[in-house]
Amino acid sequence: MKITFWGVRGSYPVPGAATVRYGGQTSCVEIRTESGGCLIVDAGTGLRALGQKLSREGGVPRQFHVLLSHVHWDHIQGLPFFEPAYIPGNRIAVYALLTAADELDQVIGGITRHEFFPMPLERVPAQFQFIEVKPTVAMDIEDFHVLPIALNHPYGAVGYRVDADGTSVAYVADTAPFHEVLHKQHFLCGLEPLSHEDLAALAAMRAGLVAALRGVDTVVYDTHFLPEEYKRFPHYGHSTPDQALEICAEAGVRTLVLYHHAPSHSDDQMDEVAERYRQLGKAQGIEVVTSQEGMTLMVGAQEPR
User: Fold this and answer.
1) Apex CA 257: angle with CA 13 and CA 260, to 5°?
2) For a FRET experiment, which of 53, 120, 195, 224 has its CA 20 to 30 Å from that of 204?
3) HSE-up of 223 (CA within 13 Å, CB side)?
4) Residue 183 to residue 2: CA distance in whole angstroms
5) How far apart are the C-alpha atoms of 274 and 296, rounded to whole Å?
């Protein structure tokens, strides 16, 4: 498989002079098989450029598959600007949790209401289909075997393990660590003490994530915060590179990709993060790569990247 990063930031886009090397667009990853199968994971602002590339490839009508981790703004804001949606005959399947909204089309359709956007979702030429995903319930999509994974994030989120071409990649964004705070659907989480039931739920979620990642070649993981930043914002639902390394080491992962970078982290700061965690990963036998907009990785390639 081949993965290409079209957006690597979290929270909001920050293109500009301070983010030229790592990029400023929000979450969007393209996964391709050797036979040409295509999965899109998350639909942040990076989706716009990916959509332009997919349109240039030609072929009408086409079927597109978009896996959403959740429906926060930085993961869906690119959908109204996805060029294939404006080509008659195309079909776009959007997969996501059923979260706080009654139906997925209410979430996605809401961002194109006439108050906010000139073309409402129901009037675009392409046909949208909304498909609910459930953690631990696997799906087969074209060449891919996809396993959704429950994550610890406000109002719920899922990661995805994707198997194809005899190898595997996992996308784990967004998630908090599995201690201190338990995020629940339909519930605004504070910092109240955890009950025994909460602690058990966190332990089960962590165990489920490690089990799903066991033996995966490459894991793209939410490493939004540095450790000192996380201490100030434990209720935001994001992890640190240290926490990602801990999970990946336990699961026997070969390569960890740092992802969902904080919008405040400049290129110079990201250079420091990349080198620090490259060395820490090497000490644990894990190759650590820091994602950059436009970067492509071959999943399963055994030579150092």
Assistant:
1) 20
2) 224
3) 25
4) 32
5) 17
pLDDT along the chain (305 residues), means of 10: 98 97 98 96 98 91 96 93 96 84 70 82 90 95 97 92 97 91 63 80 95 97 95 87 98 98 98 98 97 96 55
Measured distance CA(74)–CA(27) in Å, rounded: 7
d(CA 143, CA 148): 16
Task: Report yes or no: 261 and 251 within 8 Å, Cβ to Cβ.
Answer: no
Cα 157 to Cα 77, 234, 244, 305, distances in angstroms:
16, 17, 17, 30
Q: How many CA atoms lie within 13 A of 80 on its CB side?
A: 19
Round to whole Å and give the CA distance between 135 and 224. Answer: 23
Taking the CA atoms of residue 177, residue 213, residue 203 and residue 29 in that order, the dihedral angle to the nearest 10 degrees is: 40
d(CA 190, CA 171): 26
CA distance linking residue 28 with residue 216, whole number of Å: 20
Give how far Cα 305 sits from Cα of 11, 22, 126, 256, Å: 28, 17, 38, 12
Distance between CA 202 and CA 109 in Å, rounded?
Answer: 32
Question: What is d(CA 90, CA 256) in angstroms, rounded to the nearest whole number?
Answer: 34
Domains of the chain: 2-298 (3.60.15.10)
Tell me if 220 sits within 8 A of 30, measured CB to CB: no
Neighbours of 266 (CB within 10 A): 16
Q: What is the pTM of this model?
A: 0.94
Phi, psi (rounded to 5 degrees) for 229: -75, -40
